[in-house]
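Q: Hi! First time doing this. I have a protein sequence and I read that you can turn it into a structure. Is that right? Here it is:
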Amino acid sequence: PGLERLVVRWADPEGNPVQEAPVERRDRRFAVAFLELGPDLRGRAGRWKVEVLLEGDVVQRDPFELGP
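A: Yes, that's right. Below is the predicted 3D structure, encoded as structure tokens:
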């Protein structure tokens, strides 16, 4: 799929969506999306979730740990 059809969404440990970002191409092999960790998010340590959405449908979901 074209990258413009992909969005990345992050959810905090309680499952609340906190941010979405478009996927950006870095080179021919890599694409990225960035979670902006403002002061309001830095205090939410625990097991977070990141999801990749294709036209609104979740196509990948992975947990990750965010420390204090």
